[in-house]
Amino acid sequence: MPSTADRIEFGPPRDAGSLRAFGFALLAHALLIGALTWGVSWKRADQSVAFEAEIWSAVPQAAAPRLVEPPPPPPPEPAKAPEVKAAPPPAPNVDIALEQEKKRKLLQQQKEREELQAKKDKEQKVKEDQAKKLAAQQEAKKLEDQKLAKQREQDKQAQASTAKQRDEALKRMMGLAGASGAAESTGTAQQSSGPSSGYGAKVRAAVKPNIVFTEDVSGNPIAEVEVRTNPNGTIISQRLVKSSGNAAWDDAVIKAIIRTATMPRDVDGRVPSAMVLSMRVKD
Description:
Helices cover 49% and strands 8% of the residues. By secondary structure, the chain is mostly helical.
């Protein structure tokens, strides 16, 4: 093993000027500091003083890496105003909208029903008023009709009473004037106006000779003819009112009446103004 004496023998020689070098270094630093202070405080021309010092060590040492200052941080970006975004409108609630629309329609329908009902009530009231007015008019008319009917009945009774009195007076007058009727007769004429019981045969006897009819017929058909005369018996018209069924016989009877021209007088000297002749073929 090598001894301490060996290490010292091979080591670098001691440097006798270390203190002097240290002193120069301190002086150089002092001057540098003073120059910097002077230049900053008084703003004078920069007087650069360069000093070089050589420092070495008895033992060789490797130099430390140079201090590298980190790059300055980038300047902060200007603060941006926060972007305010409008909140999106809330999505419509479909159920609520439908419910509101349904309520609106219900209210509208209810309003329309109320208006329609009010209109019907008004029309009904008008109809009722008209019906009451009509009923009042009908009742008034009914009372008026009853009053008129009562008045007519009274007038009728009065007329009947007057007629009765007039008939009684006429009967008395006719009795005094010599009426020809029987005691039990109820007529008001002085004489009866109907023909006598034998007047029909008398008329047939006057017309039959004027009939010209040669046909042979079965049975005994009858023709009825209405004859009208004036007061002296002259025939003024004749009309077939019922056919015998044989046109030739009907025509023969009409022509016979025309030929007769005048009807005979009755027992009282009068001729009926209208009569119906029934003429048979085999009478």
